[in-house]
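User: quick one, fold this
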Amino acid sequence: MIDLKECAKSLEDAPNCLEFLQAWMRWRGEKLIASASSVRPEELGTTLDELAVLEYQPPGAVNFRLAGATQVHMMNRPLRGENLMDLTAPSDYEGRLSIARNTTSYPCGLLATWTASQASELMSPMCTLLLPVLPPVSEGPVRLYVAVDRLADLPKRNYEPLKTYPTPGERIYVDLGHGAPSDEDDFQQPPRQIAC
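Assistant:
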């Protein structure tokens, strides 16, 4: 687990995630987490293209409200309204649900690196920052805003869409000021502190 200050330090090679974190911190002000009414998408500039908005609806739906250009490009199809769990490999299902449960219930953030692997074995390292946002109405589901950075580019001519949406490899919870689950609680191996 890391705090927001440590999270910001680790994002020097992930400009989209860093810009999103800085905007999210302005949106939340003195509150624990940002609310939908305080979100100002125009503050994100081009980072908006690299942002997805998900809604966790227990027990097992994580629906795309918005998918950024990177997510749409990876899957080669529109994702709005899709349940992310339907795009998740069965072996990753419980880990992904655990992330959604923990980040919405504590609430806390998640910093992760992962690799988008394609059938041709081309691999693209990615960095993701996930932060919760309260819904516009008190009874609605908490939203999870997810910024993405490609840490290396794939050759465009060899691009193949992914069949399943990758689950983060290295991951660490981000304490927003109210605690976070132990990294060991949900995963086989505790993640080490990562830098994107």
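User: anything notable?
Assistant: The first strand starts at residue 2 and ends at 3.
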